[in-house]
């Protein structure tokens, strides 16, 4: 019989149970639903039936829980015999069977749950409809036909859950028509939406540099999407084999009860990094999900080192991971290693061989690749079980050379899923293991060990990134093959951030080839690098929470989004101070050389005047320093810096010091400017428009504190360097600039590692791209300020943190972030 004839017969079969032609034709397009519905009709044993029964059979074919297939024929007989005769009853039956799974159940309990034998008369339905309409009459008369009829139906179904929904709806419609009369044109008009009142915009200062934006943290619980441990009885996934077999992965009642007894019904998760490098910000997202879910549910999270590759692992990495996890604010329930379970993993591998589900293979990597591409079985796949047992023991004892044998799982080489192509479970490696020493010379693969250790540790939720989704069948295949408990697996999207790379392989190359200054280089998105740059764990976690736990893959988060969260925190926590990056000497000629005027400067814009701890001393002497870029020989109307014959106001951090006027320019060789001579106005009667920041000699003849300042830009020029063939060529040659001798106010001398500051800049406010020497000036006219004493917002050139290279002789500051906040200005990206 041809394909066309076969489809015609199947279509007629579907039409015979009362399906309309369009629905029947749509079913034929879906092979899985077609097969299910055909099987359901066969189990029903009907040669045509009413439309009511046919629709219920169709629901069974599309919604029946796969873990309870053994009970499907019984349910179908309830439908055919009209004991279950409406959707409400069938929904209750499907929910009941989904909970029971393949286990036997009590028929009386089932019938009670499904309303079998309960008849609701039209009179009973009508009485309840009248009651519900009376209770809602005021709203009905006000909204007329715009009232939500579904809400009324729901209220009636609460009284009669097994009532025919169609009858309920028809009665309500008929009575509404009597109450309201015929529909009018006004009833069909869409109601005018009330405009939402815009929140009052609070302007803190007329010249604030950064507009505060609302918190982007999710208002809802991000972990609410995950099921409870006791719900882990449903089918996790279906494993389709090339021979037509289907394995439906789910926990039996006995296995789940044993698991829940161990866990007490609590959530158990795990954060399983490989100790082959430093953790990056993508791991911060994994920690937020793994540790965060356990904390939110009152459960526990393992820190498990996936240490199955001894050649790539170092104690340095293990120590770093343990330390950085705690720095991120997470406390592991227990620190474990995959190597802790090497004996159990080996014993289970032996059991797989005994069950005929694993074999020792001698193919080379090239041959394995070729055979997988051709979907061909290995020539050693069907060797005797005893032979594989003997060879696997020889592998363990070190009697076979490295690369001459592997243990492979006997899965399905003809599967449509390449991760079912007889994955390698064990390989020979004569390498010292950081944790296990030299006890083993065979090591399990990630694909083999990961799911088994999840099960052995009674993990309730095995959470990983989306690239592992294709491995679900192999994950559950192993657990089914060994009759082990099956955790709930859920995949989420990777964290991809622009202008950087997050592949450990690429990061390792950047470090080992010295393109950067180690794993904690502040330009890297490693957590150690971010910390050294001055980023806090709270800012990172705020960023992670803000972007959410989603499954939308391949989305690139612009680095501006992360910078916004960092900037938001530092703006509230980093005290303000003054540093001159490129000093130009200014001699105040009308101030005695021995004079020192101590001025009070605020650390915080809103510091109360009676809080001495919020102030620090700034000396004003006859030698001060301003930024080279704040002086030019030729003045102009739109320039607010210092120029010959021109006055500017010296900033005193929130308050103001004195006006000064340039009286002379001193030149050196080649007409270079050596210093500026100026006079100050102690009376402050002069009112210039320009305002400059400055640093003075703390005492006569003593230079200001010299500090090293490091300015960082994006490490890569492109948003997505990882997709470039020559990604190293995309490195930003100007991603780091060292300013070895910047001048700082005396109070910075006491700064220690961990301290963070805002370095301020006002007047001719310049955000300098030192890599290209391009300057963008933003001017604040003096007429915006009423008097010298009026506090005004400062524009910091950036936020800086003390670096680990600092010594008692010299402080080093890393720029954490610049002033510019492109994220809050342009919105989410």
UniProtKB/TrEMBL annotation:
Enzymatic class: ligase
Keywords tagged on the record: Aminoacyl-tRNA synthetase, ATP-binding, Ligase, Nucleotide-binding, Protein biosynthesis
Catalytically driven reaction(s): tRNA(Gln) + L-glutamine + ATP = L-glutaminyl-tRNA(Gln) + AMP + diphosphate
GO CC aspect terms: cytosol
E.C. number: 6.1.1.18
Domain Glutamyl/glutaminyl-tRNA synthetase class Ib catalytic: 266-571
Domain Glutamyl/glutaminyl-tRNA synthetase class Ib anti-codon binding residues, every copy: 574-681
GO molecular function: ATP binding; glutamine-tRNA ligase activity
Superkingdom of origin organism: Eukaryota
GO biological process: glutaminyl-tRNA aminoacylation; post-embryonic development; reproductive structure development
Limits of the tRNA synthetases class I (E and Q) anti-codon binding domain: 691-763
Domain Glutaminyl-tRNA synthetase class Ib non-specific RNA-binding: 10-165
InterPro entries (UniProt xref): aa-tRNA-synth_I_CS (IPR001412), Gln-tRNA-synth (IPR004514), Gln-tRNA-synth_Ib_RNA-bd_N (IPR007639), Gln-tRNA-synth_Ib_RNA-bd_N_1 (IPR042558), Gln-tRNA-synth_Ib_RNA-bd_N_2 (IPR042559), Gln/Glu-tRNA_Ligase (IPR050132), Glu/Gln-tRNA-synth (IPR000924), Glu/Gln-tRNA-synth_Ib_cat-dom (IPR020058)
CDD domains in UniProt: GlnRS_core
Family to which the UniProt record says this protein belongs: Belongs to the class-I aminoacyl-tRNA synthetase family.
Protein name stated in the entry: glutamine--tRNA ligase
């Amino acid at each position: 019989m041809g394909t066309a004839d076969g489809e015609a017969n199947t279509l007629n079969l579907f039409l015979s149970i009362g399906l309309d032609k369009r629905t029947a034709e749509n079913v034929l397009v879906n092979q899985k639903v077609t097969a299910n519905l055909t099987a359901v009709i066969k189990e029903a044993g009907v040669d045509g039936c009413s439309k009511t029964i046919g629709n219920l059979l169709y629901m069974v074919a599309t919604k029946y829980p796969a873990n309870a297939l053994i009970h499907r024929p019984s349910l179908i007989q309830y439908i055919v015999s009209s004991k279950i005769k409406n959707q409400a009853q069938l929904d209750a039956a499907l929910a009941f069977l989904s909970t029971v799974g393949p286990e036997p159940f009590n028929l009386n309990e089932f019938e009670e749950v499904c309303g079998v034998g309960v008849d609701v008369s039209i009179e009973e339905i009508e009485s309840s409809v009248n009651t519900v309409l009376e209770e809602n009459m005021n709203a009905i008369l006000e909204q007329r036909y715009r009232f939500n009829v579904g809400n009324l139906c729901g209220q009636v179904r609460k009284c009669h859950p097994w009532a025919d929904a169609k009858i309920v709806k028809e009665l309500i419609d008929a009575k509404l028509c009597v109450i309201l009369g015929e529909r009018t044109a006004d009833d069909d008009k869409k109601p005018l939406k009330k405009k939402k009142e815009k929140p009052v915009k609070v302007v803190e200062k007329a010249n604030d540099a950064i507009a505060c934006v609302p918190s982007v943290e999710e208002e809802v619980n991000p972990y609410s999407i995950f099921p409870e441990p006791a719900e882990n009885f449903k089918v996790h996934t279906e494993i389709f084999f090339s021979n037509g077999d289907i394995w439906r992965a789910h926990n039996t009642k006995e296995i789940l009860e044993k698991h829940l007894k161990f866990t007490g019904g609590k959530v158990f998760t795990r954060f399983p990094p490989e100790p082959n490098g430093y953790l990056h910000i993508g791991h911060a997202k994994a920690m937020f999900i793994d540790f965060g879910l356990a904390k939110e549910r009152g459960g526990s999270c393992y820190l498990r080192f996936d240490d199955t590759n001894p050649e790539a692992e170092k104690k340095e990495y293990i120590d770093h991971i343990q330390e950085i996890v705690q720095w991120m604010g997470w406390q592991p329930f227990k620190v474990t290693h995959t190597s802790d379970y090497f004996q159990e993993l080996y014993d289970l591998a032996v059991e797989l061989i005994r069950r005929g589900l694993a074999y020792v293979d001698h193919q080379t990597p090239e041959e394995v690749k070729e055979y997988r591409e051709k979907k061909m079985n290995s020539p050693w796949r069907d060797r005797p079980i005893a032979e594989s047992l003997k060879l696997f023991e020889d592998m363990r004892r070190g009697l076979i050379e490295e690369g001459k044998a592997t243990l492979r799982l006997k899965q399905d080489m003809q599967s449509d899923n390449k991760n079912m192509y007889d994955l390698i479970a064990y390989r020979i490696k004569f390498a010292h293991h950081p944790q296990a020493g030299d006890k083993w010379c065979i090591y399990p693969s990630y694909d083999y060990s990961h799911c088994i250790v999840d099960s052995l540790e009674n993990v309730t939720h095995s959470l990983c990134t989306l690239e592992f989704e294709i491995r679900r069948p192999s994950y559950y295949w192993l657990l089914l093959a060994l009759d082990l408990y099956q955790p709930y697996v859920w995949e989420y999207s990777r964290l991809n951030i622009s202008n950087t790379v997050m592949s450990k392989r690429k990061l390792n190359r950047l470090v080992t080839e010295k393109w950067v200054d180690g794993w904690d280089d502040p330009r890297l998105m490693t957590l150690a690098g971010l910390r050294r740059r001055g980023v806090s764990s709270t800012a990172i976690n705020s960023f992670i929470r803000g972007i959410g736990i989603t499954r939308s893959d391949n989305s690139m988060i612009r680095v501006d989004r992360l910078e916004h969260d960092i900037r938001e925190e530092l703006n509230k926590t980093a005290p303000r101070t003054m540093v001159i990056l490129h000093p130009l000497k200014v001699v105040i000629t009308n101030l005695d050389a021995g004079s020192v005027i101590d001025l009070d400067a605020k650390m915080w814009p809103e510091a109360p005047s009676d809080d001495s701890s919020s102030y620090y001393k700034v000396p004003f002497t006859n030698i001060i320093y301003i930024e080279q870029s704040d002086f030019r020989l030729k003045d102009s109307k739109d320039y607010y810096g210092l120029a010959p014959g021109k006055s500017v106001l010296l900033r005193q951090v929130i308050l103001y010091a004195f006006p000064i006027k340039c009286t002379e320019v001193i030149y050196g060789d080649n007409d270079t400017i050596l210093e500026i001579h100026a006079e100050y106005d102690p009376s402050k009667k002069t009112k210039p428009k320009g305002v400059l920041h400055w640093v003075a000699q703390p005492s006569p003849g003593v230079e200001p504190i010299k500090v090293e300042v490091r300015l960082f830009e994006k490490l890569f020029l492109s948003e997505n360097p990882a997709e470039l063939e020559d990604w190293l060529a995309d490195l930003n040659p100007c991603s780091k600039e060292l300013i070895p001798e910047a001048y700082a106010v005396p109070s910075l001398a006491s700064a220690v590692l961990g301290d963070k500051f805002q370095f301020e800049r006002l007047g001719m406010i310049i955000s300098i791209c030192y890599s290209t020497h391009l300057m963008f000036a933003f001017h604040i006219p003096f007429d915006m300020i009423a008097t010298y004493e009026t506090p005004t917002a400062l524009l910091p050139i950036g936020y800086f943190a003390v670096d680990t290279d600092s010594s008692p002789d010299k402080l080093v500051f890393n720029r954490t972030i610049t002033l510019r906040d492109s994220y809050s200005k342009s919105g989410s990206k």
